Structure formats: structure tokens, C-alpha cells
Amino acid sequence: MEILHIPALRNPVMLCAFSGWNDAAESASAALEHVINALSENKPGVVSTLIGEIDSDDYFDFQVNRPQVSLDESENRTIAWPSTQIWGVSVPGFSRDFVIVSGSEPSMHWKSFVTEVLDLADDLEVSLIITIGSLLADVPHSRPISVGISASSPALAKELGLEISRYEGSIGILGIINDGAMRRGIDAISMWAAIPHYASNAPSPKAALALIHAIEDFLDVEIPQGDLPNEADAWEKEIDTLALEDTDVADYVKSLEESKDAQDLPEVSGESIAKEFERFLRRNNQS
């Protein structure tokens, strides 16, 4: 890893998202990109620092994650290689700062990759790691995007009042980071947004917004939303229009809606309203 600058950070929390297998509709990586940009552009006094970059030669198969060539305004060619960047974001008024790890999921040498990430977490005295992902599911686009939050260990789940992950099967780099953090004694939780499988094309601003809300609620912070709410509404209306053009799809969406509504208990709806009210108060108090 090439370290560029180590900033002074207050009780930092590390947020991790990677494009690829863990990132249906690119929602998780879009959410973290929004966090960096929204805080840097809309919060006075915010300091964003590029801490370092992990060497892509060690971890990527360039036949799988190919470099991209583009032309600048002067028509000079520029090659962008797959990479992982680590940013430090210090926000006045927040009780803790952010360390944001984002990039493409590595193709190989995952153990070494995670060791580099967690060594840096130790050096920066990170007290909590939040891995952020999105997956395809049998859910309707017309209902709130569900974000599941789980802890890496039974003890942490009990302490934070979260579920323990009971998933068994193939995992991505996020699962390896969570496991490595637990073995080092670093608290780690995961957040996963459920994306309608019939609307899996990127971008999915509604899912990105749901992940941002989950981060806000868990850390008790306010992140400027910018145009995301309007983009989420436009996305939902576009899917509505496409669904209505095919009666089979419309019937399928209706069945998903009925199933989702039957699962949502009244107390769950009340909890959602309470969280939305808390966000409203945070935005007013911090504006």
C-alpha cells in the first residue's frame, strides 16, 4: 500500500464498499461515493484526505478487471487502472471521523489484501468497521428498500441489539474483512440493501439512499442528500412505467407487493416512521 498522508482522526469508523460481486446495481459503491462528495461539498470545515492507495498489480487480474482508457479535453489518452483508495474524512460536529475504503473487489490474494486494510485500520485506531453491500432479491421496487444490518459476532450483536448473520454460502471480500476484523478484536457490522432482481441495472439511487439512511441512523449523523431523493423518485417512476408495459411483469410486481405488505408488521411501519422523524430532527438541528 502506498501511504500518502496520515491525518489526525477522532475515533474513526471505517466504511468499506467494493464494486463487483458485493455491489448489485452499484448501489453500495454509489452510496460511499455520495458520502464523500456530499460531506466535502456541503459541510463547512470538512477535510477530506487521500490516505493511500493499494497497488493494483498485486490484487487484480486485468483480463477480468480491465483498465479503462479515456480522452481528456485536449484529446490526450489517459489509462485508469482498477484500484482501491482509502480516504479520511473529518467532519466538524460529528462525534467521530470516517475512513472510507472503496474500489473494485480484488481478483486474487484476498488474505493479503485484507491484511493491508486491517493493518491500516489498526494504525488509524479504527474502533468500528462497517461493510456495505447490495444484493438482488425478490422484492418490489415500489416499497422502501430494506437494509439488513448484522454483526460479526454473537457478543457484538447482543451489545448493539443487532442480528447475527446466519448466512451460509459463497462470500465476497466484505465477508473476509468482517471475519478478519473479528479475529483482531475490531468491531464490525455489515449493511446489505435488497435490490429488486428485475431492476438490477445501475444506477439504483433508491437503494443508495436507503444505505445512506442506514449509515445515518446507526451512527446518528446527518449526510446531505443532494439530488438523491429526486433521483430515487424518478427511478421508481421509470420502473413503474416499464412494468405497466408488460402485464406479466405488472402481475409479478403486484404479487411481490402483496407478499412484502403481508410481512411488514404494524410495529415495523411505526419504527420506520420514527426513524424518518429522527432524521428530520437531525437535519434541522445540524442545518
Written description of the protein model:
The chain is α/β, with parallel strands linked by helices and 287 residues long. It has a single domain, classed as PAC-like subunit (Rossmann fold). 41% of the residues lie in helices and 23% in strands. It is built from 8 helices and 11 strands. Strands 1-3-6-7-2-8-11-9-10 form a 9-stranded mixed sheet, sandwiched between helices. Helix 5 crosses helix 6. The longest helix is centred in the last third of the chain and has 21 residues.
Topology:
Elements: E1 2-3, E2 13-19, H1 27-42, E3 47-54, E4 68-71, E5 77-80, E6 84-90, E7 98-104, H2 110-123, E8 128-137, E9 147-151, H3 154-160, E10 163-164, H4 173-184, E11 187-196, H5 205-219, H6 228-244, H7 247-263, H8 266-286
Parallel strand pairs: 2-7, 2-8, 8-11, 9-10
Antiparallel strand pairs: 1-3, 3-6, 4-5, 6-7, 9-11
Helix pairs in contact: 1-5, 2-4, 5-6
Major pleated sheet: 9 strands, mixed
Query: What is the strand tally?
Result: 11
How much beta, percentage-wise? 15-25%
Oligomer: single chain
- Mean pLDDT across the residues is 89
Brief summary of the model shown:
The chain contains eight helices and eleven strands. It has 287 residues and is an alpha/beta fold.
